[in-house]
Each structure stands twice: as structure tokens, then as C-alpha cells.
Design a protein that fits this description.
Length: 180
């Protein structure tokens, strides 16, 4: 299965990209880096520049239907940039419209708020997003990982890098159809 990792050209929290990427790859799936621009993305370790990674597909040319699931890594700047890009928001929304599973960690639910897909859902995130999620019609919980089955697809969310093992385990089970 192909799994899309949607990130901005800069600002993604590196560990929130690399650990889920490794989990997807180790499970025998194909991780695909999708961004708003071609070339490379600049990851960060909190506020410090980290490594760069090559973009596989540009979001305006990517087809959500060619992926079995979507992973949205966090970082403060990453989802803030993505939610201002109409093509990125439409790409995220299409996963929900097509009933495909989505996983988001830390600040990534900001992009979900912009895509107007949290209404009626229960999710977790970095604590500073709780008011945004509530204002968008979602229910925020402080849990290591939350799987929400509202609607035709499943949404897996997590709070922070310390939750990565649980996050990866949960979304891999959901993406493979083992949870439901």
C-alpha cells in the first residue's frame, strides 16, 4: 500500500516524519513524501534545522485515490503552512470524502480544522490546539492516541513525539484494516 506523508517545504518536526515513515516502510508499505513544492523539504528538531528530504510528489498533482492512507506529521510551522495552501487542504479533505484513513500527530490537526473534517469527531493533539478543535466542532481529549471511527473513514491522532510508538502502532493497524 502507498501511504502519503503530506508536509510543507519547511517546518515539519523531523522525528514525526521519520519514525512513522520507518514504521510504514518496515510494515512493507510504500511511504511517499508529498509537498506543496518539488525539490526537498527542510525538517526541524523543534526550532533548529535538521535534515532535508526529497519530495516524491507535488500535492497539486497527487491523487488521493492512489494512496491507502495519509499521515500528517506535526511541527508548529508545517501544518500552519499547509492550512494556508488550498491544494493541500483539498488533498486532505479528499481522503475523508473517499473514506480513506488519516493519521495526524501534534500540531497536524490544524490542517484538519482548515479542511473542516473534525466536526463530530473525537481527537487529540498538542494541547494548544484544543480550543481550535472544539471551535471546529470536534471533541478534544488528552490521550496518547485516539482512534475515531466517525464517518466513513478512521482518524488516528496523537499528542507529541513521546507518543510516536503508540501512534505508529495504531495507524498501521487502522491502515491495514485490522482496527474498526
Amino acid at each position: 500500500m502507498r501511504v502519503a506523508f503530506l508536509v510543507a517545504p519547511e517546518g515539519v518536526e523531523q522525528v514525526e516524519l521519520t519514525e512513522p515513515w520507518k514504521a510504514v516502510s518496515d510494515a512493507g508499505h510504500e511511504p511517499v513524501l508529498v509537498s506543496t513544492d518539488s525539490g526537498q523539504i527542510q525538517a526541524f528538531n523543534h526550532l533548529d534545522k535538521a535534515d532535508t528530504f526529497p519530495v516524491d510528489e507535488v500535492v497539486g498533482e497527487a491523487d488521493a485515490g492512489s494512496f491507502g492512507g495519509l499521515v500528517l506529521p506535526g511541527g508548529v510551522a508545517n501544518p500552519d503552512f499547509l492550512r494556508m495552501d488550498d491544494k493541500a487542504v483539498a488533498f486532505v479533505k479528499s481522503f475523508f470524502e473517499e473514506g480513506r484513513p488519516v493519521a495526524a500527530i501534534c500540531h497536524a490537526p490544524w490542517t484538519l480544522v482548515e479542511a473542516d473534517v473534525v466536526r463530530g469527531r473525537v481527537l487529540t493533539s498538542w494541547p494548544s490546539l484544543r480550543t481550535d478543535i472544539r471551535n471546529a466542532g470536534g471533541t478534544w481529549v488528552d490521550e496518547q492516541v485516539k482512534i475515531c471511527d466517525h464517518g466513513p473513514n478512521q482518524l488516528v491522532t496523537s499528542r507529541k513525539p513521546d507518543d510516536l510508538k503508540a501512534f505508529c502502532d495504531a495507524f498501521l493497524h487502522v491502515f491495514s484494516g485490522e482496527a474498526g
